[in-house]
Structures are given as C-alpha cells and as structure tokens.
Amino acid sequence: MDVNAERFLKDLHDLRSFGASGVVKGVVRPAYSDADIAARQWLAGRMEEAGLTVRIDPVGSVWGLAEGPSILLGSHSDSQPEGGWLDGALGVIAALEIARAAQEAGGPAVSVVSFQDEEGRFGVTTGSAVWGGNLELAKADGLMDRDGITFGAARAKMADLAGEFVDPTRFTGFIEMHIEQGPWLDQAGQAVGVVTDIVGIRDMKITFRGEQNHAGTTPMHLRRDAFQGLNAFATRINEDFRNVVTPQTVWTIGHVSLHPNASSIVPGRVTFSMQWRDGDADRLARMEAIIRTAAQEIADSRGLEVEFGPMLGLEPVAMDNVLRAALAKSAATVAPGKWREMPSGALHDATNVARHLPVAMLFVPSINGISHDFAEDTDEADLVTGLKVLAGAVASLRP
Ligand code: HGY
Ligand code: MN
Ligand code: MN
Fold first, then answer.
1. Structure confidence by residue, pLDDT tens digits, 88-137
2. Is residue 86 within 6 Å of ligand 1 at its C-beta?
3. What value does the mean pLDDT of the chain take?
C-alpha cells in the first residue's frame, strides 16, 4: 500500500486551522467547542470523500466505517485548553490517509475514528471510556467541566448530528498512532516507538472548606485558611509518596479553584484536581490511601473540612502481542536502528478500546519532549516515517 505523504500533511495542516491559537502551531479545540464541532464536521466530510460511511455517535465521536470486518485506526481531534496541533490529530489523519491508501491498493478494509473528549474537559478519555464500557453514559452525563457545565449538556450541542453507538464486533483490532509527548525518542534521535503498555490513572477533585474572613484583621492563629491547607497537603504528599513511588510514577495538582480568589480575603474554600499515574494498579491504590489520609489529617489539624469528589480511573493496559509485533516488524523495515519499544506515560483512547478489541500503539518523537502546550511539534519527516510504519503494519495484517 502506498501512502500519499503530501495528502496526509495537507489534511493535518487543514485540521490545525480549526481553533488555531495564532501562537506557533497551537490549537484551542476543547471537546464540544465551536471549533471542535466544526473540525468534526470537516472530518466527516473527508471520511465521506474517502468512501467511508460516516456515523457520529451519541457522545460526538466521529466514525468513518468501511464495509465488512475492518481494522480500526484513529485517535481524537479535541484538544487541551492550550493544545498542540498533533496530539490526537495525528492519529486521526494518519488513519484517514491509510484508509484511502488501502482502498486504492484494493484492501485491507480500514475504518477510522476520532473519539470525543479524550483530553478530559469532563472526565478522562470520556468518549472512548463510554464506548469501551469503562464509564456509564448516565454517569458521564453528570460530569462537570471546570465552569460547571455538564457532559450531558455539552453533548446535546451535537445531538442533531448523532446516530447510534457503533457495534465493536465489526472491527478486528485497533491501532493508534500518536506523538510520544515525552523526551525519550527525541533525545535518542529515534523516529518511532512501539508501545508496550499504557499506564493507569486516577483523578479526583478534593475540596478544603475553612472560613472566609478579612485578611487584615483575622489573626494568623484564628484562621481557617483553605489555601494554607492545600499548600500543606501538596508538601505532605510529596513526603509520604517517597517510599511508594518509582521514577516512572507521576502526580499532578493541575487545576486549582480558590474562593473567592481575592487579595484581601482569607480564602474559605479551595477545590483542586489531584491526578496520579503509574503502570501498577496496586501502587495507584497505595497512593490513594496516602492522599486520603493526608488530606483528612491536614483538615483535622487546621479546622478545615475535606470533601473528596468521585474518583475517575483507568487501569494499566498491555498492548496486544500480534499487533505490537506487526508494528515492530514494520518499524524495523521502515526505520532500521531508529526505533524502540517503550511504555506510554500518557493516557490514550486505546486503553478503553482494549475492553473490546486487541489494541496497539506507535509513537513518533515530540521535539524537546513538549506537549499539552502550543509549542508541541514533530519534524514532518518523522510524521511521515510513522505513517509508513503504520501502513506497513496494517498491510501485513491482511488475511
Ligand atoms: O492526559 C493525557 O495523558 C492525555 O493526553 N489526555
Ligand atoms: Mn492525545
Ligand atoms: Mn493530550
């Protein structure tokens, strides 16, 4: 099968024009934003032109379906609030190009998907989590973004486009191409990573409630300052994790909402995100226990109340041996000496798809290891190398 690198790169750049930030190549295309919906409609048109049957499912994931049994390729086209042009988009456009090239070559049958809300405006990989059965739709509908909008209300914006969920039994497997989003391939001067497994994640909101008061007149020893509670908590877990974590374990407080967020008011409430990731589910559980104990003890000692929101989680997932071997063989042919096997520290839709299908992933380098930032980028030669590796693997899977 011969992929068309020019056609692939043009589509990738065209997709970037939806929600272009104006800062380098970055995009602002969070799930269900006007730019995201417009991009999804554009993508549906490209799928149709490629001879695929378009279906938009009840959560807004866009599918381009080949006839009969097919291999599914894809990723997501929503972005972080400040996102790069390749995170997700690369896997979707590579899938589209391979579906076209495969048709031109007379097979195999390739279907394409762009899952909705992979970037977790509402949850964690929400669209594929619902499709894969990791998250009930009714529960997803109640999830709120940081402005208090529910997933249910947001997906209603696409209701007039929506059909049924796609039956997973029509697919024989799933391969997701993605940027690495970390430093390893770039530092080693390598072009391709074949993924061995994807880490697990836990994500929850925690709230400390204290007493809002005057910042000039309230003596320090009488304060019940919610921000000071968060400050103590962040320091405490760094200490308490020390004997539990490995160099691969990560944890992040990435969103903080302080109330009322004013210079002259002792803050009475803080709600923050607590997220942690590791390849070992037991370690994730031990970290959860540390988090809950630390937050409770800090609250008790400072006259605060603590409230734990619902915890979202995805388990670590190993890649399928057959698909992974096909990618490795293709990488060794297309990029000899310039590829490696590696785990994924980022979450991907493949985690959820693994509930239904054998899954595998391949990575291309991220320049300076930057992602979830407008500066995210990859050398176009590496994008094309990755595309060729994926095409080779898909071609080798034909019956
Ligand atoms: O956060 C993640 O790992 C993914 O990029 N959403
Ligand atoms: Mn992604
Ligand atoms: Mn991402």
1. 999 999 999 999 999 999 999 999 999 999 999 999 999 999 999 999 99
2. no
3. 97
- Probe target for ligand 1 pocket from 82, 275, 372, 373, with the most ligand atoms within 8 Å of CB: 372
AA identity, residue 92: V
Judge whether residue 179 has pLDDT over 80: yes
- Whether the Cβ atoms of residue 53 and residue 112 lie closer than 8 Å to each other: no
Tell me, yes or no, if the pTM score tops 0.85. yes
DSSP 374: T
* Average pLDDT, integer, range 25-29: 98
Q: Is 120 in the pocket of ligand 1 (CB under 6 A)?
A: yes
- Per residue, what are the HEC states of 102-136? HHHCCCCCEEEEEECCCCCCCCCCHHHHHHHCCCC
Give the type of residue at 36: D
Q: Which of 199, 192, 141 is nearest to 324 (CA)?
A: 192
183-232 pLDDT per residue, tens: 999 999 999 999 999 999 999 999 999 999 999 999 999 999 999 999 99
Strands (E), 199-314: 200-209, 213-214, 250-252, 256-259, 265-266, 269-278, 305-308, 312-314
Identity at 261, one-letter amino acid code = N
CA-to-CA distance for 37 and 156, rounded, in angstroms? 12
Give me ligand 3 centre to Cα 158, in Å: 22
**What are 340-398's pLDDT values in tens digits?**
999 999 999 999 999 999 999 999 999 999 999 999 999 999 999 999 999 999 999 96
Separation of CA 81 and ligand 2 centre (Å): 13
